[in-house]
Amino acid sequence: MSQLLIQGGRRLDGEVRVQGAKNSVLPILAATLLTGDTVLLGNCPHLRDVEASIQILRTLGCDARWEAEGLAVDTSRMDGCAISDALMREMRSSAIFLGAILARCGQAEISYPGGCELGPRPIDLHLAGLRSLGVEIQDAGGILRCRAARLRGREIVLSFPSVGATENLMLAACGAEGTTSICNAAREPEITDLQNFLNVCGARVSGGGSSTVVVEGGRKLHGGAYTVMPDRIVAATYLCAAAAAGGTALLRDAREQHLSTVTAVLRQAGCDIVSDQAGIACVCQRRLRAVRTVRTAPYPGFPTDAQAVLMASLLRSRGATVFEENIFENRYRHVDELVRMGADIQVSGRTAVVTGVETLQGAPVRCTDLRGGAALCVAALAAEGETRVMEIGHIDRGYESMERDLRALGACVRRTEAEA
Ligand code: EPZ
Predict the structure, then answer these.
(1) CA atoms within 13 A on the CB side of 243
(2) Measured between alpha carbons, how far is 111 from 97 in angstroms, rounded to an integer?
(3) Which residue out of 112, 162, 370 has the highest number of ligand 1 atoms within 8 Å of its CB and is therefore the one to mutate?
(4) CA distance 261 to 238
(5) β-pair partners for 181
(6) Residue nearest to atom 22 of ligand 1 (CA)
(7) Do 136 and 146 form a contact (C-beta atoms < 8 A)?
C-alpha cells in the first residue's frame, strides 16, 4: 500500500492549478447515459472514483477513454441496466447512476450502496423521489430492482436538501414526460455544473443553485463537449495547507465564490486572502488565532467536506475552536490520528473542541477516509519532523496527486511503497 512521507516545519511558497471537481464529474458521468451519444469532458480529474465510474459505464456497454483533451465517453451502445455489487461497493456514490439508467432504459438494478466510513449513507430520499416519478422499486436481499414503464414529471419536495438525491432526480426527470420541480433542492455549485452540462446536451433545466430545480422532460439529448468546474474542496484543502504551514499559496482556477465560507473563516484566523478570476492567493505570515464556532451545513453553509482540513490547519492556533458536524454521523475519525501528532481535540457527539498547542510532532498515521486523510497531510506540514501517512488510497479517491500538488506549493513530500 502506498504511503506519503511528509517533512513538516517548512513554510509554503508556490502555485498549483486546482483539478476538476470530483463531486461534479461523478454525476456528469452518470448523465452521459442520457445522451446516447459521445461526450468530451475537459478538466476531468484522474481519480480512483472516476475510474470506478468508467468501469460502471463499461459494464453498461458504453465506451470511455482518456484523450489529450479529456475523457471521451460514448454511450450510444449501452446494453445493460445493472451495476454489480462489487462496483457498488467500490464507490458508495454509484447510486447516482440509478436515475440516468431508468431514464434511458426504463429499468435498473443496483445493490444497496450501504454505509461507508462516514456512517450510514441512506438513499431513502432518492427512492421516494423516484417512486413519485412513477418508478416501481423492489428492495429484496440488498438488491434494488427498479422498473419505470413511463416516468411522469411532477413536483417533488425533499425533506432534506440532499446533493445526491437532487442529482438523481434531475437525471430521472430528463426522461420523464412533462415538467418536474424539485423543491428544497441542494444548492451546491456541483448542481449548477450538472445543470449546465445537461443543457449543453439539449436538456432544459433551470434553477440550479437555488432551492427549486425545474426540469422540462421528454427532450432528446445529444452529445457535446463540456469543461468540468474546479474542485472547491481541493482548493479549500490547499488553502488550509498554507494556513497550517505558513507562507504563500496561489491556487489557479479556484473560484472564491464557491468556498466563501471557508475563506471567511481563514481570514478570521489571520490569513490574508485575495482572489480574482484567475484564482485565489493566500498569505499566512503569523500564528493563526482560533475562530468562532464552525457549524457544517448544506450549501451555502460551511461545507462538511472542508471540516477536517480546516481542523487540521487550526491545531497550533492561539485559543480554542468549536466544530459542529451536522451533516454526517461519523466524520471525526481523523481526530484520533491527529491526536497521535500531539493535537488537543475533545470530541463529544457532533461537537469537537480544538485547543491550539505550541507544537505538533510528525508520526505514523493512518487515513480513515478521503477528507480525513487530506487533513493528516495538512497537519503534517505544520508538524516537526517526518509524518508517514498510510492507506493513502482514500486520498487518491479525490485528489489527483496530493504529493504533486503539495510539492508545487513548496512542501517536502514523496510517495513510497510500504514494505509488504
Ligand atoms: C455528496 O454526498 C458528496 N459526494 C459528499 O462528498 C458531500 O459530503 C455531501 O454531498 C454533502 O455535501 C458526492 O457528491 C459524490 P447528501 P451525498 O445526499 O450526495 C443524508 C467527499 O468527501 N441522506 O447531501 O451522499 C446523508 O446520510 C464526499 O467528496 C439521507 O438521509 O450527500 C447525510 O447525512 C463525502 N437520505 C446527509 O443526508 C438520502 O436519501 C447529506 O447527504 C440521502 C442523504
Answers:
(1) 31
(2) 12
(3) 162
(4) 15
(5) 155, 214
(6) 305
(7) yes
Question: DSSP labels for 167-197?
Answer: HHHHHHHHTSBSEEEEET----HHHHHHHHH
For 284-343, write each residue's pLDDT tens digit.
999 999 999 999 999 999 999 999 999 999 999 999 999 999 999 889 999 999 999 999
Residues in the chain: 420
Residue 61 half-sphere exposure toward CB, CA atoms < 13 A = 13
Return phi, psi of residue 195, to 5°: -60, -45
Q: Among candidates 329, 369, 372, which has minimal Cα distance to 349?
A: 329
Report pTM: 0.97
DSSP string computed for 104-143: HHSEEEEE----BTTB----HHHHHHHHHTT-EEEEETTE
CA of 396 to the centre of ligand 1 (A): 19
DSSP 249-302: EEEET--GGGSHHHHHHHHHHT-EEEEETTEEEEEE-S--B--S-EEB-STTSB
Of all residues in the chain, the percent with pLDDT exceeding 70 is 99
Separation of CA 113 from chain center: 17
Number of Cβ within 10 Å of residue 82's Cβ equals 16
Q: How far lies 181's CA from each of 130, 199, 299, in Å?
A: 13, 16, 19
Res 1: pLDDT: 81
Q: What is the distance between the alpha carbons of residues 405 and 114, in angstroms, rounded to a whole number?
A: 32
Q: What is the DSSP letter of 221?
A: P
- Ligand 1 neighbours (beta carbon < 6 A): 22-23, 26, 93, 121-126, 160, 162-165, 186, 304-305, 327-328, 370-371, 398
Q: What are phi and psi of 283, to 5 degrees?
A: -120, 125
CA of 383 to the centre of ligand 1 (A): 31
Residue 254 pLDDT greater than 60, yes or no: yes
For 129, counting Cβ atoms within 10 Å of its Cβ (0-12 exposed, 13-18 middle, 19+ buried), the class is buried
Alpha carbon distance, N-terminus to C-terminus of the chain: 8
Identify the three-state secondary structure at position 20: strand
**157 C-beta neighbours (distance < 10 Å), count:** 13
How many angstroms separate the CA atoms of 128 and 150, rounded? 16
Three-state DSSP class for residue 410:
coil
* Residues 11/245, Cβ–Cβ less than 8 Å: yes
